[in-house]
Amino acid sequence: MSNKTKSYWEKMIPKLNFSSRAIIDGKQVNAASGQTFDCVSPIDGRVLTVVARCGSEDIERAVAASRRAFESGVWADQAPGERKKVLQRFARIIEAHADELALLETLDMGKPIEDSLNVDVAATVRCIDWNAEAIDKIYDEIAPTGKHELGLVTREPLGVIGAIVPWNFPMLMASWKLGPALATGNSVVLKPSEKSPLTAIRLAELALEAGLPVGVFNVVTGYGQEAGEPIAAHMDVDGLVFTGSTAVGKHLLSTAALSNMKRTFVECGGKSPNVVFPDAPDLDTAAEAAASAIFFNQGEVCTAGSRLLIHEDIRVDFVDAVVKAASQMHPSHPLEPGASMGAMVDNTQMDRVMNFIKSGSDEGASLRHGGEKANIEPNGCYIEPTVFDNVSSDMTIAKEEIFGPVLSCIGFKDEAEAVRIANDTPYGLAAAVWTSDLSRAHRVAGKIRAGSVWVNYYDGGDMTAPFGGFKQSGNGRDKSLHALDKYTELKATWINLAN
């Protein structure tokens, strides 16, 4: 827990510079149309600032700036070790502005300030640092040829990357794209969600301060159809990377295909199963982890353990333990020290989640805890952690990604049924298995169709492991050396040495 008080953070707010214009070609600019939109804090409904509402003309300007920077070679042609130095300075500057960035993130999207500081900012720094350090350790290849030929296999940057990122981890998701894209020599046009644009703008300012050349990193703010769609459709964008809902991901794949067949990678939704067997090493620990897996970040997490699959031999007692853990994770003002849950990102998302809660009760699930809005601040967007028991796989709350603090508890009788229920979803992002039986852990993890499977804990991994999903959870991988593949093209060069 941080020793910084609510008062400390509140005193910082008037000193914040709410940068609210797009960053194009190294300059803060208004939208070409002059239009803006309100940036509203879900903590208490206050308008933080007005932000540039970019459209197709602004996308044209940003892509053109990125293209000029890329073709000039001012960044792409720098030696990997030189790009590394700039990105490491960028990481140090982010670190130096940690409190400012954390506060912007919390005010903008409602998460607890300690999570913004200790998770989001810290992981952003780690991501930029890690990719910077990796880039001059990656070698190209020499093909096995006869002595009269030389075959080179090299990687070249794609060129201009369009990156569209979500509102739940605005800064961190941006860094997962920026780190490898910039390290490999690309230029980037970043479109943050209109629900959480502030840290993206600030990151672009800090990148310029770190020495990233003008035009290499541009930020356009605005709505999906007005700013995101033109990026996906643009004929001069070479690669598109996206994190967000499966529906939007499908649309972007289609749009990209119909434009210039740009390389497109989408990381989409999830309905992750958290499977608990009776021989879990510590059932109390498993119950606490199950609560944290769904209620962390107010449930606004693509990997959230939203389906808790419990063996019938322990289901009654285990659900009781989860309810007890949930009762300790009530929403609080996000600037309060030790807050475990904050505000939903906005009223639209809050109402959406409340509709799912209603559907759970209407369809016959047993409401064990929560289910109501929480009155933390007037005009705030808060929901109690909610636990449903006796959920069946055909219920809406078990099928659809809610993206809120709603847990569905589902019983199973044996391993085969657990695997069947776990895979009974169009998603395949993540899963967890709790058991002391090493053979079962391997067996079940291998049968669950998911990009990440954690055994005896939830949400493991770090920058060294790839992140992404199977099925309709997407086709891309963030993090690890594998992420670099998305931002480069393979080239084969054959040289005749006979003469």
Detailed description of the structure:
There is one protein chain. With 499 residues, the protein is α/β, with parallel strands linked by helices. The chain folds into two domains: 6-268, Aldehyde Dehydrogenase, Chain A, domain 1 (3-Layer(aba) Sandwich); 273-462, Aldehyde Dehydrogenase, Chain A, domain 2 (3-Layer(aba) Sandwich). It contains 15 helices and 21 strands. It has helices at 6-12, 56-72, 80-96, 98-109, 113-135, 170-183, 198-210, 224-233, 246-258, 283-295, 315-327, 347-362, 396-399, 415-422, 438-447; strands at residues 22-24, 27-29, 36-40, 47-52, 141-143, 149-157, 160-164, 187-191, 217-219, 239-243, 263-267, 273-276, 307-311, 366-369, 386-389, 406-412, 427-428, 430-434, 452-455, 470-471, 488-496. A seven-stranded mixed β-sheet has the order 14-15-16-13-12-18-19, with helices on both faces. It has a five-stranded parallel β-sheet with strand order 9-8-7-10-11, sandwiched between helices. A three-stranded antiparallel β-sheet has the order 5-6-21, with no helix packed on it. Helix 10 (283-295) packs across helix 11 (315-327). The protein is globular.
